[in-house]
């Protein structure tokens, strides 16, 4: 039945596209200004728009609905083809970043000219953004390149000397997806989060001035290594530095794995495929075992730890302050990106579910059973508004925090690089302080953002009913691809605990007179803390700022409670459940604060239209109220709000905002400016023609034969079963005779 | 690296199996008695054991780790082979149920002998259980047979006359997976939950005394129909009965789709494949469109609605009381089974995650960095105990409620069948009352159970870190297969709303003096309600019974609040968020009550061992406390507990139970008696040898070639990329000349 016949009928036939379009006609919002707000600036918005157009139009890079029918082998091949294409875009992006396009080949310069500066993360900014945007339609591609650039690359950038950085990343060409392809061999079968306990060994041999890499036992097998199974020619390996039988702890080394021409494994390198995963099968995760693999001393990344062989004795020199931090700095880039991913991935599914909720009808008003009573749109049910609209607010609230974090990351790492090159000790402390704050914020925002989006996808899929379960509407693969973000590059629970412990330490330090300067810890001001503890400063929801500040008050009360408990119990175990909450609430506070500051300042928000401003403030309030209500247990238990305040203030305000935001829910999703090709989910396409679009994608991917799907290949087994006769049983009487 | 070499090494090498085994050595529990408790009786326990052995040993039925690497086509074929094998077991199961094995073929009798009784749901009890157990290792198989027996079969059984039941289910052989294979054509592209608004038309033609079935437009296309794409020869179709242009609403009809011999589609039947889904790809869900398909009048299922053609006039006779209920009764069976599935599926993943948590080590105590400090087992972290152990309690608490519901279902439907045959009006009311209570309980337990297990799988996967994301440890496919249970056969939100509305009505009826007799509504006793509202009866946690009763008190207070609000607002919309909670809390109360009654009575619980009793009571308390804490927002807001009671009673009790239950967590999972073949997840195998088992399954399914995974087929694209030269740019200067 085609689009035409679908409209031949009257009566109950649905016209979902008319609902969606009328929402747009009646809108009072300025979509372009809203887009500038979520994309943080006109320059960013333009760049995002150009990149989206390119990755959705490029015949190699684009992702259609056939994507949902690919098996592992097909995904891996398609991903490889896309990587090769991305490499060409990359050279162009670097060229543009250098603004040296005429009569000049920047890449050649970087590879061959020693006078050329070392490429900074900023120089790769355009390509990083391209990667983050294409990850939104094909996450596995993002990972497969991200492991090479973000993990392998940043491991060298963070732990290598300037010569090593220049050699591996520029001369050899790694940064341009040339010459070598890298993977990041940190995790082992038996060790994930506990990096300090990794068991792979790198023993220094003074006679040959080289390291011998070994995998001592099965649990020390490098595991989950993205790119190892098929793509990688080199790996940055985390292994224990052993010199003269002394264990200096885990350091990093560049270890060649394959001949880049033949892709043959090198001597002593054993590699296997880890096989099928919950999602992201386009990534060739592998395992690696080393048997006496020899690498020259120079392959150890020696920015902070050096092995010096004077001939008659061997010494190990270490820069204590930065050595440890830098070991993890490779993971920072991933965490910061995952916060941005949370915004982009979330915006996709919010758009799909809200357009479906507007177009889909179910039950007549008050369950009126008469045939002519036209059915109610899902979005008009208060329960459905409560199920979907807060997720829209979540997406809007993640954006400013994500852009702010990205910015802090770039500036801080640039400083770190400068300081560690200059070796200026005095400048070390302030930088490492900044780095520590960056670790806390990125950890709590990564954990919170990825968790929020995991439940966003799950709850919005359920809000789309059965059609949400169809592969072609994207929720299934979307969820399977997404949830690994809650585990890798720092398990969300571990990250929450570590960040919360550091926040507790900051809180405890207040007593010693150490005050906080960074914006995200402003709730730790001595005045506010005293006011809250004395009870002179209590929570309210009158001004817009209050909606951020209540979370600061909540945090102070929980921190106070935890610090007290730890003093008594001498252990943080008893409060680990609370610590996870503290990290989450800290992230909420950072998100609300970043959003508040941006929206308050039109020159920063780029939103001058009054209705749009008003709506953005409503989303801000909805976010805060939704989570106060979700966590009303903590808010009442720690006496931030009384039970009656929850009933008479928080919940009525919350339920009151929903119908108001519902009025503009379609324009608010249009403002993300995601083309259908990026959504890749027919029930969420722009024109709102749910049933025809969905039906057409299903038919396209499952064309019925002339006579329906026809006989299945296994048809004989069924007919044999259906046609079988009776199982006559023996006449046992006879046998008895 | 093999099992042997893995043990050649000392030092940091892990010995997870030793941890798991020592837990068993130190246990004080009686595993056999615990198993009798969760399996509800010795007979059930024995039957479960026998069936598990059969489905895990049978070479056709068993499911290995290769299952996780199958594509859609492979899954569908494997499922068809399993169906054919299950058909043979089925005949045996019916034979055994009849206890007429000698000199007699029961199936032949049922198919050919009119004196034979009509087969009841009880007679199929053994096979139903076999189905429910095999669904635990291969859910898609369970569905594919379940749609035929449970939906197609029960639709005929619930809506057909005795002759129709005998004809379709016995003579034609449907009940024995013979002759015809059925599907259940209810849902349409445009209509899911709102059955009354389905648009497929069945127009009666008096001249030919037949119905003409039509699909009026695209949204009326039958959609999601399990078995339609390839397997089904017949369908029970939900369509509007139109007689002389009058619409009598939605009735049910048996419509032939394919020739059972050739599997060719019949005239006017258009069928397509719905394609890939989030999970359960072994089910051939399809779409169906009817174009003037003619069926004889006798194919309308006419137990409650008849079309009588006297020759000169046509009348439609309806039995109002039961007609509507029976329309949905086909779905009851599925809902009841899903509560049992929740117990079985949950027990599988609880076992995997807890064995992993005991075997897996991470970080030294107090993050001691020294190499020799052996690392802490995950399960010894309070946070990890809080993350996994409550899920163990959930599984234990679902079991008694699931068995009780199954029992009520069988007795109630038998009564319904008797009454509707006898046509004895006086007996109608009590039965339909029972049926309504069954609808409420099954709805709230189905919604709550399936939601609990969805988050159980998700949270326990995260508790297994990266290894939980590997396909071979079962969480991925397990989650994808499971979550559809939250949507189909009654969307969880819709079910929650309808059951909660009925509970509200019962509460309101108290004022009219209508009291409740059924166990699951005991909290609606006038005395208790008055006591709670007057404040003379307040919540406490002293006796074991209190742990159930607090939920009754919570429910009364919420119901009171909601009824009041509805009186004011004249609509239930404003409280829909609360209604979902009421349904959830009602389910918690039913689960706790059923568990309490069973455990209190040793002749019912079969647990005489004191330690085991004590531990079962601890799980009971943990369940109640865990959810009081999770919902402490509601408990404080509705003043069941004060903030201080939450801090000083609920949470300390909760955290205090965890270490106690942790001591026996391995035996408590062993008590489910799930063999490795049923778990199909190496990190959860019985011997606890996590790393060797997991590594071996990965190698088995991804055997490395002599030289590692070797060159990927797409290798050329990568080398071309890595070997590409520089992009010389024109000397524009020259061109300028």
Report on this model:
The structure is a homodimer of 737-residue chains. Chain A is α+β, with helices and mostly antiparallel strands and 737 residues long. The first copy, chain A, is built from 26 helices and 11 strands. Chain A is 55% helix and 9% strand. The longest helix of chain A is centred in the middle third of the chain and has 41 residues, at 382-422. The model of chain A is unreliable at 1-11 (pLDDT under 50). Chains A and B meet through helix 1, helix 5, helix 6, strand 7 and strand 8 of A and helix 1, helix 5, helix 6, strand 7 and strand 8 of B.
How would you sum up the global shape of chain A? globular
Name the quaternary structure. Answer: homodimer
CATH class of the domain at 492-671 in chain A: Mainly Alpha
Secondary-structure-based class of chain A equals alpha+beta
Pathway (chains A, B): Lipid metabolism; peroxisomal fatty acid beta-oxidation
GO molecular function, one term (chains A, B): FAD binding
Cofactor (chains A, B): FAD
Domain Acyl-CoA oxidase C-terminal (chains A, B): 544-722
């Amino acid at each position: 039945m085609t689009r035409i016949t679908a409209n031949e009928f009257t009566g109950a036939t649905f016209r979902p596209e008319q609902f969606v379009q009328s929402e747009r006609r009646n809108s009072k919002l300025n979509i372009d200004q809203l887009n500038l707000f979520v994309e943080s600036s006109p320059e960013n918005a333009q760049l995002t728009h150009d990149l989206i157009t390119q990755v959705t139009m490029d015949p190699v890079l684009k992702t259609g609905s056939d994507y949902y029918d690919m098996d592992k082998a097909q995904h891996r091949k398609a991903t490889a083809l896309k990587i090769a294409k991305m490499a060409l875009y990359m050279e162009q992006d670097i060229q543009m970043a250098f603004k040296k396009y005429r009569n000049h080949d920047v890449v050649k310069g970087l590879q061959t000219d020693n006078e050329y500066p070392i490429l900074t993360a900023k120089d790769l900014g355009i390509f990083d953004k391209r990667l983050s945007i294409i990850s939104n339609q094909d996450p596995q591609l993002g990972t497969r390149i991200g492991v090479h650039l973000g993990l392998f690359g940043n491991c060298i950038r963070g732990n290598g000397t300037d010569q090593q950085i220049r050699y591996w990343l520029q001369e050899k060409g790694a940064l341009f997806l040339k010459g070598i392809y890298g993977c990041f061999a940190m995790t082992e079968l038996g060790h994930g989060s506990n990096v300090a306990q990794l068991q792979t060994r790198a023993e220094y041999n003074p006679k040959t001035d080289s390291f011998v890499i070994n995998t001592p036992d099965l649990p020390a097998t490098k595991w989950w290594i993205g790119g190892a199974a098929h793509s990688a020619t080199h790996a940055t390996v985390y292994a224990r530095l052993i010199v003269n039988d002394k264990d200096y702890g885990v350091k990093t080394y560049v270890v060649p794995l394959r001949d880049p021409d033949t892709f043959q494994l090198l001597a002593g390198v054993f590699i296997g495929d880890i096989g099928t995963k919950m999602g992201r099968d386009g990534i060739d995760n592998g395992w690696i075992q080393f048997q006496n693999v020899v690498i020259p001393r120079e392959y150890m990344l020696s920015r902070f730890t050096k092995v010096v062989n004077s001939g008659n004795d061997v010494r190990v020199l270490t820069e204590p302050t930065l050595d440890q931090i830098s070991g993890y700095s490779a993971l920072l880039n991933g965490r910061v990106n995952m916060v941005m991913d949370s915004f982009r991935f979330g915006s996709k599914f919010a758009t799909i579910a809200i357009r479906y909720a507007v177009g889909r009808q179910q039950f007549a008003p008050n369950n009126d059973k008469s045939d002519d009573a036209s059915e109610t749109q899902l979005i008009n049910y208060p329960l459905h508004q409560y199920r979907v609209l807060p997720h829209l607010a979540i997406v809007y609230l993640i954006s400013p925090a994500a852009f702010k974090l990205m910015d802090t990351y770039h500036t801080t790492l640039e400083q770190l690089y400068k300081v560690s090159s200059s070796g200026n000790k005095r400048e070390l402390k302030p930088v490492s302080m900044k780095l520590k704050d960056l670790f806390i914020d990125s950890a709590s925002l990564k954990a919170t953002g990825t968790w929020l989006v995991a439940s966003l996808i799950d709850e919005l899929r359920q809000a789309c009913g059965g059609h949400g379960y169809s592969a072609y509407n994207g929720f299934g693969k979307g969820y399977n691809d997404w949830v690994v973000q809650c585990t890798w590059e720092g398990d969300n629970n571990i990250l929450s605990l570590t960040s919360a412990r550091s926040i507790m330490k900051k809180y405890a330090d207040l007593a010693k007179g150490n005050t906080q300067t960074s914006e995200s810890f402003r709730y730790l001001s001595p005045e506010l803390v005293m006011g809250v503890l004395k009870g002179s400063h209590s929570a309210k929801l009158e001004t817009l700022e209050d909606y951020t500040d209540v979370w600061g008050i909540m945090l102070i009360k929980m921190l106070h409670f935890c610090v007290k408990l730890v003093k008594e119990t001498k252990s943080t175990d008893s409060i680990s459940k609370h610590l996870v909450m503290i990290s989450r609430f800290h992230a909420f506070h950072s998100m609300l604060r970043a959003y508040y500051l941006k929206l308050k300042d039109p020159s920063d928000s780029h939103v001058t239209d009054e209705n749009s401003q008003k709506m953005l403030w409503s989303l801000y309030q909805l976010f805060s109220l939704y989570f106060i209500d979700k966590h009303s247990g903590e808010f009442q238990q720690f006496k931030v709000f009384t039970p009656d305040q929850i009933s008479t203030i928080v919940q009525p305000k919350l339920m009151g905002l929903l119908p108001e935001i519902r009025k503009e829910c379609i324009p608010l999703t249009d403002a993300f400016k995601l083309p259908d090709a990026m959504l890749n989910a027919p029930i969420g396409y722009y024109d709102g023609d749910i049933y025809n679009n969905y039906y057409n994608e299903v038919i396209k991917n499952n064309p019925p034969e002339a006579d329906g799907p026809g006989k299945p290949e296994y048809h004989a087994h069924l007919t044999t079963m259906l046609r079988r006769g009776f199982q006559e049983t023996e006449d046992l009487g006879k046998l008895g005779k």
